[in-house]
Amino acid sequence: MDHCLVTRKRGDMVRCDGVFPPETTFRELLVTENSNVAIRVSGLGKMYRMYSRPSDLLWELLLRKTRHREHWALRDINFEVGKGEVVGVIGRNGAGKTTLLRIIAGTLDQTKGTVDVKGRVSAIMVLGTGFNMDLSGRENILLGGLVLGMTHDEIAAKTDDIVSFSGLQDFIDSPCREYSSGMVARLAFSIAVSVDPDILIVDEALSTGDMIFNAKSYARMREIAKSGATVLFVTHSLQQIYDLCDKAILLERGGVAAVGEPRTVGYLYEQKVHEEMAALNQTNAPVLQIGNWVSNESRKAEIVNVDVFSVTKTERTSRFKDGDEYLIRIAVKAYESVRSVSIGYDIRTQTGVQVYGFSTSNAGVEENLVAGETKEFTFWLRPSLNNGTYFLNVGIAENISDTDHSNHYSMMHFIGDSVTIEGITDSVFPGVSNMRGEFQKSKVMADERSLDK
Ligand SMILES: Nc1ncnc2c1ncn2[C@@H]1O[C@H](COP(=O)(O)OP(=O)(O)OP(=O)(O)O)[C@@H](O)[C@H]1O
């Protein structure tokens, strides 16, 4: 796997525009505005020509007759990234994430539209060229450093730090072809962050590193962001999006499906994935695994009140004490009569990890709503959360399955973070939920055969 390091000089405003621009040329613009925008993408499109056979390209050139079909990997992409923002790009395989990042980094030309980038870009691409796999890690540091615009002296001064950050001291003089893909990603990341970039672009390089390196990389990315630099990265992990980002971009089949607050975009992504899986009939996942931050497009019904009540203390509360009993009450006002609805909730950590969810459909109950009525739904639970902050999301969905055998719901109203809950426990344990584990006994084993007994 090749990794690519790219740089543009500090202070440059680089722009590429027009249809079918010449290969790898970037025209510099005079910066006429003093804006806080680090990256501006306008009307961006990328088309690949697809040939059924390699010889079709030759025939096309010779006969001047089209023998390809067009495949638009990106269509009409528009967004801005502010200076110092950390932005995560998510989307299914083939959505266009890598293509987008490569165009912004300047390693790939677009077919349409413009990309304005202000500042020195340092990019780590999973695909592309740049690392010479026959050279050693140390030689690639030199090569990468030069590509990033450093002088020999600067690289020499930084090499020890780069090697130490990568944790590859024992392998640094071996050829990179002997490295695992994770090791190459580590080295590429270490080089890219060593130049104090204005804009750091990371395409899934972190997904190949091990846990310890990933933790170090996140910390470094946070530092880079804190220093005022802009970070744009691709990930398949919503947790990383919730953890690190100020903003998320969801790409779908080459278009921007959503840009905005990370959890809003993350939930929308989950909802789309869930809907697709449900359409494929491959899941019976409870309805509240899907959701939107606040969504009420149907206007058929609305959640008008949510409260949490402590049965143990007989009072309204926003605390879940480990082992106590609670009621979650959700009041719904119907504007239309709707049959077969499911009402429910889920509880998530601050980083969006779903801890638990439950709904009337999980309980095997289908409810009906009558136009004009307000109905309250009460759920009992005995939570066992670790100390910390959690969010209660609530939703109401209509069963739109056309058979009795599938569970396909359409969300009518969803409120993310409707109540912020404080988890409280006296126990000390790692993780989110107390599973009531107990130590039973220890015994000295006579020999390994006793393991079978
Ligand atoms: N060199 C190429 N020639 C033709 N089509 C390409 C080329 N590179 C990418 N594509 C197509 O462009 C689309 C977007 O690809 P891209 O690699 O950007 O997706 P992605 O979102 O990064 O996917 P993944 O999550 O799998 O990495 C896909 O349909 C892909 O097949």
UniProtKB/TrEMBL annotation:
Name assigned to this protein: Polysaccharide/polyol phosphate ABC transporter ATP-binding protein
Residue ranges of domain ABC transporter in the record: 52-278
Family: Belongs to the ABC transporter superfamily.
Domain of life from the UniProt record: Bacteria
Regions annotated as coiled coil: none
Keywords: ATP-binding, Nucleotide-binding, Transport
Record SUPFAM superfamilies: P-loop containing nucleoside triphosphate hydrolases
Cited CDD domains: ABC_KpsT_Wzt (cd03220), Wzt_C-like (cd10147)
Gene Ontology MF term list: ATP binding
The species this protein was found in: Rhizobium anhuiense
Lineage of origin: Bacteria, Pseudomonadati, Pseudomonadota, Alphaproteobacteria, Hyphomicrobiales
Claim: Transport is one of the keywords in the record: yes
